[in-house]
Design brief:
7-stranded mixed sheet; 395 residues; binds pyridoxal-5'-phosphate; 5-stranded mixed sheet; alpha/beta; 40% helix
Length: 395
């Protein structure tokens, strides 16, 4: 071999003992021993990797770990596909399963990006969404009975930012009675606090960007399904054809974050409960939305559906509307003003002036997002520091 070829050629790697920690497989393709192996892998009759848009060991290992968490103790295995973001996970799920003329039944208080994806993008392709109050089970059943085009019931519980809850078991039973799938966004709770498969759902999506990663340094998502065939033939195929695959680096960051998920969730929950109880006693606070508070309208349902805590998200409404909300945000010192959630540090958001700035005021208020509402993603710092900052900011 000439020296310039030596520069170019890949060297067989000199790995001896297996690495203790999952490596990042930063390779676009994988090489085959011979053509038969390649054909077998492409035909899906032989296991193996071919091309990282289809599958990658770092991504697959992370995906399977999250699937194992979602099915832990339930006695079956689920199949998972990681994607480039939470939005890509939701879009991939729907692209894989729905066709023109199908309808989705969902709630008005979804994550804003999901609502926009449904009402703008999917509507362009003839998939319509009916938004309703999924807590009204009689009405949900009427809609399903009257409209066989509804092929998917899609929910988020607890929902953003009011932490309203819906009954997952009742909704998945209803969906199945009328031949529809039930899918849920479990980003807020993580499998540590809520296992939707135990309540009958068919598909779970996550923005792993949030709690599963936990450190605010990656964007990724995942779809997890009970039915291996649907996952392979519909969801995985849509992911690979759209090219919504997760990068190995982002998956690796997520994989690292998962190791402390249990410890983090414990502290997120205890800190959020402490902050919620503190805020509830403040005269300038009109209302605190936290499912762990007895005053929350869905507290009893949350107690049945969530285990080991009520999550790290809360919101509260200040007396004094928009002006009071903005003044409070400007006084924050210790916590960070950042438009994400689930990181280890406490993050504050004022929906009326940021995430919901372009949502009509009447629509916003209908979903409990008033001018004075502040959302907190409670971190895992010492709770005294979080509470002290909130005390001086609320005034
Ligand atoms: C509940 C929920 N689902 C999905 C998403 C979208 O996730 P990503 O930003 O990873 O695309 C978000 C983002 O904030 C979210 O809060």
């Amino acid at each position: 071999m000439q020296i310039d070829s030596l520069c170019v050629k890949e060297r067989p790697d000199n790995r001896t003992t297996p690495p203790h920690i999952l490596p990042i497989y930063a390779t676009s393709s994988f090489s085959f021993d011979d053509i038969d192996q390649g054909i077998g892998i492409f035909k899906n009759i032989e296991s193996g990797h071919a091309y990282s848009r289809y599958a990658n060991p770092t991504v697959d290992t992370t995906a399977q770990k999250i699937a194992d968490l979602e099915t832990h103790g339930l006695g079956f295995e689920a199949t998972a596909v990681m994607t480039s973001s939470g939005m890509a996970a939701i879009a991939t799920l729907m692209l894989g399963l729905l066709k023109q003329g199908d309808k989705v039944l969902s709630q008005g208080n979804l994550y804003g990006g999901t609502t926009e994806l449904l009402v703008v993008t999917f509507a362009q392709f003839g998939v319509e969404t009916i938004f309703t109050d999924l807590r009204d089970l009689n009405h949900v059943e009427d809609l399903l009975r009257q409209d066989p085009a509804i092929k998917m019931l899609y929910c988020e519980t607890p929902a953003n930012p009011t932490l309203a809850c819906v009954d997952i078991r009742a909704l998945s039973d209803l969906a199945h009675r009328y031949d529809a799938w039930c899918a849920i966004d479990n980003t807020f709770s993580t499998p540590l606090l809520q296992q939707p498969f135990a309540h009958g759902v068919d598909f779970i999506v996550h923005s792993t960007t949030k709690y599963l990663n936990g450190h605010g340094n990656s964007i990724a998502g995942i779809v997890i399904g009970r039915d291996k065939d649907l996952m392979r033939k519909n969801v995985w195929r849509a992911m690979k054809l759209v090219g919504a695959n997760c990068s190995p680096f982002e998956a690796w960051l997520t994989y690292n974050g998962l190791k402390t998920l249990s410890l983090r969730m414990e502290r997120h929950c205890s800190n959020a409960l402490a902050l919620a109880e503190f805020l509830e006693k403040q005269p300038k606070v009109a209302r605190v939305n936290y499912p762990g508070l007895v005053s929350h309208p869905d507290h009893e349902l949350a107690k049945r559906q969530l285990k080991g805590g009520f999550g790290g998200m809360l919101s509260f409404e200040l007396r004094g509307g928009l002006e009071a909300g903005i003044a409070c945000m400007n006084r924050i010192r210790f916590c960070a003003l950042a438009p994400t959630l689930g990181d280890v540090d406490t993050l504050i958001l004022h929906p009326a002036s940021s995430s919901h700035l372009h949502v009509e005021k009447a629509v916003r208020e209908q979903n409990g997002i008033s001018d004075g509402l502040i959302r907190v993603s409670v971190g895992i710092e010492n709770p005294a520091d979080i509470i002290a900052d909130m005390e001086q900011a609320v005034g």
